[in-house]
Amino acid sequence: MKRSNRVAQSLSQLALLMGALLMALLVGAILIGIAGANPLVAYRAMFLGPFSGRFGMTESLVKATPLLLVGLGVITSFRSGILNIGGEGQMVIGAIAGTAVAFAFSQWPAFILLPLVLIASVLAGAVWGGFAGWLKARLNVNEILSTVMLNSIALQLCLYLIRGPMIDPEEVAYGTGTPQTAQLPRQIWMARLVRGTRFHWGFFLAVALAFVVFIFLWRTTIGYRMRAAGEGPNAARAAGIDVEKYQILAMALAGGFAGLAGMVEVLGVHRRVLEGLSAGYGFSGIVVALFGRLHPIGAIPAAILFGMLTLGADMMQRAVAIPAAIVMAIQGLVVLFVVGSDILVRHPEIWQRWFRKKSPGTQGRLEADRAGSGNQ
Amino acid sequence: MQGVVISNVVIGILATGVRLLAPFLFASIGEMFCQRSGVFNLGVEGIMMMGAFVGFFVTLRLGNPYLGVVMAILIGIALGLLMALVSVTMQAPQGISGIGLYMFCWGLSGLLFRIYVGFITSIEGFKPLPIPGLASIPVLGPILFQHNWLVYLSILLVPISWFVLFKTDWGLKVQAVGVTPQAADTLGVNVNAVRYQCLMLGGALAGLAGAFLTVGQANMYADNITAGRGFIAVALVYFGRWNPVGVLLGSLLFSMMNSLQLWLQVLGINFPYEFAVILPYVVTIAALAVAVRHVWAPTALGKPFRRESI
């Protein structure tokens, strides 16, 4: 009985998520219409594109990888009652720190250098995120505002480094001056698994980490305390949990995941740090986390879905010249509709009441049903 | 001779600072009303982006910047309504819905710009409107009285909003709704209606702030022209302790800093450009850290109101 209830609840939640996505796509279709293209043709390119051949299928997963990693961090922080909006900055800081380490020890063999680089990126992201957590816990600085500011700071810092001290010597030699670093040492590139595509093993790393986060949050004491701090900080405090400490930890972990996402993007896709590396993944990761219902396992399909949407939007841009920027608008709408419809999960009586108010005929039928079942 | 140059530079920095005050003031006074009523509207940055684009686009197509400003305000009101629908009626967590609104506006303004314009082009914005008599006062004239009308309006908004918030019925309702919504509700104030009104006002002012950037300041549009000013405006409300005078002081601090950064570049002082850009963000964090601790805030800030929960 209890189990079937849970199944029914997850199904209704899934229905609401899909409803939110459909509504966002509907508004998106109107925008495409305003832009002067046929929405059906545009959406055909957007949804079928990712399924066209080896490149589409794998490239979706390439885009899903940073989404999932950032999303896991967002889940950890949201579950602990603190909002990490700083994914963009943490990604960039992680990537630039890992890259600096890679260049410093470029002669070292991969089996030492690769873990070292990944750890450096996690630590740098963790410091960047943990700082916002510390500001919140110790000085009561709103973490949303501080992470947004830290995003801008990180992006400018990175731009300074890749235009100046860390710029590719070849860019200087040829005088082109594109702001990017040199290619990372070849031995630590993340291997591509399918010929002719960019699909690298970072995706499997991200999926494995999703399970690690699940075990961490639901099967360990620290994870339990973090969730307790998120669900009822006062109750948690009364139970002797140092809520502030766990919120700092949560922000550090969120930053660590985003930092790793940045480094994986460098090692697996670009092989160097360049301008626009974070590409909105820091914000899309929030969408993935919400769409995965703040559950690390749920975030896996959500990341793949939004990876496909992101790629599909690129393909649509090429097919019908609708700018790919539309995917950010659609994702924003998804966020609005998902958090907006959440009230229907928490308080089902609301929409039941709307339903009755708006169509008295239905109410009559419901009452008739009730009377009918009473007779039986 | 050197003295004249230096005093001209100082006057220049101060005058630019007053001009750059307008977007901060418009956006943060609007946000102050939202937060006073208990709603944390992070979508301000997004609404500013849309206001900036619409103001620019209407001016580009129709050649009338006044119409551009009106349209930007209308778009701002519409987006404020959307925020209200999600955060007030549907009681969504405000931090997340604000970020959702920001992403929506970010994508939408980028989309519209690429479709309808696609390249950087300049427009004829508002010209400076020197105030007769006052503008010719030495030193003070160029600093305060040689700007376009939106700058004067933004400064006038400080006493106006002070009066509205503290001396009118509606302002008292806004305060009550943000501190003790239950009590306000008991006394017959429609809590959610007041919050809707505040979000629409905040949206209108954010749209205006955005339009100022394109029509009153840069005379062009580019991606991310708001550059985080909307988020800074939200921070300024904390910094100004939910008070128009405090918000004015905070806005002054930021506009002067922006002006200083621009003049550093103009004067060719050797200083990495990126660090100059970073400065306002660093100061925002520092200001929040210093200002926010143990300070009074609207107690119902961030909490959706639900009558049934009494």
Explain this structure to me?
The complex is a heterodimer of chains A (376) and B (310). With 376 residues, chain A is mainly α. In chain A, 78% of the residues lie in helices and 0% in strands. Chain A has 16 helices and no strands. Chain A starts with a helix and ends with a helix. Chain B has 310 residues and is mostly helical. Chain B has 12 helices and no strands. In chain B, α1 (2-36) packs antiparallel against α11 (244-266) and α2 (44-62) crosses α10 (229-239). Chain B is globular. The model of chain B has no long low-confidence stretch (mean pLDDT 89). At the A-B interface, α6, α12 and α14 of A face α3, α4, α10 and α12 of B.
What descriptors fit this protein?
heterodimer, A: 376 residues, mainly alpha, ABC transporter involved in vitamin B12 uptake, BtuC, 16 helices, globular, disordered C terminus, B: 310 residues, 12 helices
Write the SSE topology.
The complex is a heterodimer of chains A (376) and B (310).
Chain A: H1 2-34, H2 39-48, H3 53-79, H4 87-104, H5 110-139, H6 143-163, H7 169-174, H8 202-219, H9 221-231, H10 233-238, H11 243-270, H12 281-291, H13 296-320, H14 326-346, H15 348-358, H16 360-375
Helix pairs in contact in A: 1-2, 1-14, 2-13, 3-8, 3-11, 3-12, 3-13, 4-5, 4-6, 4-11, 4-12, 5-6, 5-11, 8-9, 8-13, 9-11, 12-13, 12-14, 14-15, 15-16
Chain B: H1 2-36, H2 44-62, H3 65-89, H4 94-116, H5 140-144, H6 149-167, H7 169-179, H8 181-186, H9 191-218, H10 229-239, H11 244-266, H12 273-291
